[in-house]
Amino acid sequence: MANQLLKSTTSVSSMTLLSRIVGFLRDMVIAQMFGASAGVDAFLLAFKIPNFMRRLFAEGAFSQAFVPVLSEYRTQQSPETTKAFVNKVFCALSVILLLITTLGVLAAPVFIYLFAPGFHHGDSRFTLAIQLLHLTFPYILFISLTAFAAGIQNAYGKFIVPAFTPVLLNISLILAAIVLSPYFAEPVIALAWGVLLAGFSQLLFQIPFLSKLSLLPRFDWDWHDPGVKRILTLMVPALIGGSVMQINLLVDTIFASFLPVGSLTWLYYSERLLEFPIGIFGVALATVMLPHLSKEYAQKSQNGFSASVDWSLRWILLIGVPATLGLTMLAGPILATLFQYGRFLPHDVVMASYSLVAMSLGLVFFLAVKVLVSAFYARQNTKLPVKIAIVSMLANVVFNALFIIPLAHAGLALASTLSSVCNVLLLLWVLMKQKIYIPIFGWGRFFLRLLIANSLMALLLWWCTPQIALWLEWGAKDRAIQLLMLMSGAMVAYFGGLWLTGLRFSHLRLENA
Q1: So what's the pLDDT on residue 513?
Q2: What is the pTM of this model?
């Protein structure tokens, strides 16, 4: 079982790595062609709104309710009953999504007011954002059904195709920027068309793989089906909890809309770099652990459930702590190497580096919350995470208000970090208080090994990293070579430190967690 978990996580991580690499190419193209402009601010807002709904509804509340119930059906019911359940859920989900999409397109100005009150009528970003949202909002219909298809595949232990699917979005946006943008008076509109086409292609891509599982759904309306009603019941608190988390992002956007032009873009590129380790490892681990923990809970294996959470947390620290050090100490060099071309200026690199450092400090907590929340949802307990998320949301609002004036956009990033710390500490406290998670012996020695290895890595980066002024002056080739050397040296120092302190791969197997 341990080998299978690690293999599945590695498979998802490898596909996510491919997606992130193509995503960086996408961001490099957008940065070079559009810079940190009012048009990019408007597009990022118009793209954030359907993403807000997607994370809240499809990949949030729906997936967290659907995957555990489907795993239970698969374990305890016949294939015919499971297929009928999938059909009825598909029908209910499609109707809800059609209603949401129609409402979103019709109410586009309202959404812009809600998400960015700083975009007023005299601001060119306001009108453009409405136009872009008309094109991007239907993305939620396609990508939510794609998430439904991914949930089916994950419940059946198929992780590679869902993990690869986001590559299609990145490819679509690259082609839109390069091929379509010259044909528009406002070139950034091409990116909105790219989003819409990407949603359609991502959904279409799932069809043959669902057919292979004999689970390609068809319409079968039965709103009163016990399975559908159960998912809807589980979704309500999960939806509230997801709303709280997404409201945090909404609050950040509202505050950022009052900041100078470019602030949304600087925050976006900081988030994109942070999403690299989160997507490659955090999302991959949570994706694999949700069905696994659901199975452990269905089989009433309390020891196995707790050991799986413990194993996940150790891996999060093993990967997350050095990633945090790397992103904070190399924030400027990474941003300059990837994005300082064309219209993305040295000033933009410096400003984005401030928010990247602030966000990176919370990386371990952003990773941990995904696994800890999965531990609750796998037990079909969606109420406690809601209460904790509400506390975290209130903390985020307070931190935003405290830090936005002295730190501007970097203050918003720091607020997200601190609210995530609150979220994780509360989730962990509840799990341990209820004895759902009991730490396994050996954490003290594990922390000591991490401290030594990360100290070696930090010393190397501090000693060898040139001043940011040099990075801003160098050409692309010199930046890439220097960054590659620093990253390679950091990895050698870190993993060498772990080896010297006695940590071996066998110590990180699930049964030895």
Answers
A1: 42
A2: 0.70
